[in-house]
Amino acid sequence: MNAHAEQLTIYNSLKGEKEKFVPVNEGFVGLYVCGPTVYSNVHLGNCRSFISFDMVYRYLTHLGYKVRYVRNITDVGHLVGDADEGEDKIARKARLEQLEPMEIVQQYTLDFHSVMDQFNSIPPSIEPTATGHIIEQIEMIKAILDNGFAYESNGSVYFDVEKYNEAHPYGELSGRKIEDLISNTRELDGQDEKRAPLDFALWKNASKEHIMKWPSPWGIGFPGWHLECSAMSTKYLGEQFDIHGGGMDLKFPHHECEIAQGTASNGVSPVRYWMHGNMLTLNGKKMAKSTGNSILPGELFSGDNDIMEKAFDPMVVRFFMMQAHYRSTLDFTSEALVAAEKGYERLMEAMKALNNLKSSGESSQNVKEIIDGFYASMNDDFNAPILVANLFEAVKYINSVNDGKLHITANDLELLKSEMAAFVYDVLGLKSSDAGNNDKLSPVMDLVLDLRQEARTNKDWGTSDKIRDGLAAAGIVVKDGKEGSSWS
Ligand code: ZN
């Protein structure tokens, strides 16, 4: 374990305050993040949430924890309108496009993975699907029924919120009081299967036309949306685990229901630290397809949109997201992304310079203190924007050493190199945007520069210039120095 791991604090949404992080099992972290419902292209706002938790996962790993990171795929049970009535989001899309529901699931799971990959997001340790865990969900419903916190009605099973509230507080996470919740819900119309309006579905009886359905002790049906996360987190992380993350919009009712289901079936509150990422706005307004104020990640990367003035590299977008705390709202504008692009390039230039830096004399700055600052920022509830500010203090120092104005010892230089690489690449998840290309180009460029060197040795200036100009036309700049030629 990294010695700094002791100092990690996390803002726990359940308590409304920052707490020292103490895992259930020493050296191990169970991390669950609510994944996407795969019925459309992944939304930029959702990407922000997933990238925030990717950063959390990366930092926990950097601290030396063994992290089991579970992020589900919702491929059934999420009804249009997020409630207990109406059509399944995936089944609806399948009907409209005349496809099998699993074709929809496959298509948008691939889209989601591709976008996450472009953002350099690490895949979770386990990515379970709701349809792959119907048996576990049925078993959990049985346990909740056995414990008296649910009832069967007309082939459906509902969670009895008022009964549960007599034994355990309901509404703790979202800070809602059950009396207020009751008065804010509509009256039951008599046709309803539910006993009370607040009750939510654990299992829904399926009509004949319903496409996605399974047999159960209560008849043919499908699980309620909230249940899958409880069943899968219990299966892979245990009855009580460390961190559960998701977007702010999932706090109520989804996460509130997860707490109730876990407690009602296992007798213990399922999560120690609840973390919620904030939302993203576009030009100061909520993103919404209906108003046209909306952009897909792919459209942002290609520049094929009417909202941004140019295309932005996924790494610039990721860097931009890291400049806001995950609990703050973040506004996407062209100006802000252009500024982020400059910052990102400055950081990457400094990382290159750092690799070629030469040590000399005594260190002009306290390198250990600089690095302690990196840890202090991330240990303060994953404060990435403060980390970025600290990294830029280091960038100034690196550039001054590079210019020969300041000095650094060999030991400090090694330390700075390894910790800068750890925080920029491993923790923030950035990579130089041309890194992949350079890997493939390197052997080719070595060959081309060899040929050019040969031409120069033979005083064949025509060939040498032809190679240089040709490379320039391809956007590659060749610099001739005392120790041979270099390119960028
Ligand atoms: Zn969930």
Question: Keyphrases for this structure?
Answer:
488 residues, alpha/beta, Rossmann fold, Isoleucyl-tRNA Synthetase, Domain 1, 3 domains, 4-stranded parallel sheet, 4-stranded antiparallel sheet, 16 helices, binds zinc ion
Mind explaining what this structure looks like?
There is one protein chain. With 488 residues, this protein is an alpha/beta fold. It has three domains: 275 residues, Rossmann fold; 147 residues, Orthogonal Bundle (Isoleucyl-tRNA Synthetase, Domain 1); 51 residues, no CATH class. Helices cover 46% and strands 14% of the residues. The protein contains 16 helices and 15 strands. The chain has a four-stranded parallel beta sheet with strand order 4-3-9-10, sandwiched between helices. A hairpin with a 2-residue loop joins strand 14 and strand 15. Helix 2 packs across helix 3. The model has no long low-confidence stretch (mean pLDDT 93). Zinc ion (ZN) binds next to loops.
Present the secondary structure layout.
Layout: E1 9-12, E2 17-20, E3 28-33, H1 44-62, E4 66-71, H2 89-97, H3 101-118, H4 134-146, E5 150-153, E6 156-159, H5 161-167, H6 178-184, E7 200-205, E8 221-223, H7 225-237, E9 241-247, H8 251-266, E10 271-277, E11 280-282, E12 285-286, H9 297-302, H10 314-322, E13 330-332, H11 334-355, H12 367-379, H13 384-402, H14 410-427, H15 435-457, H16 461-473, E14 478-481, E15 484-487
Parallel strand pairs: 3-4, 3-9, 9-10, 11-13
Antiparallel strand pairs: 1-2, 5-6, 6-7, 7-8, 11-12, 14-15
Helix pairs in contact: 1-14, 2-3, 4-7, 4-8, 7-8, 10-11, 11-13, 12-13, 12-14, 15-16
The protein binds zinc ion (ZN).
Zinc ion binds at residues 34, 229, 254.
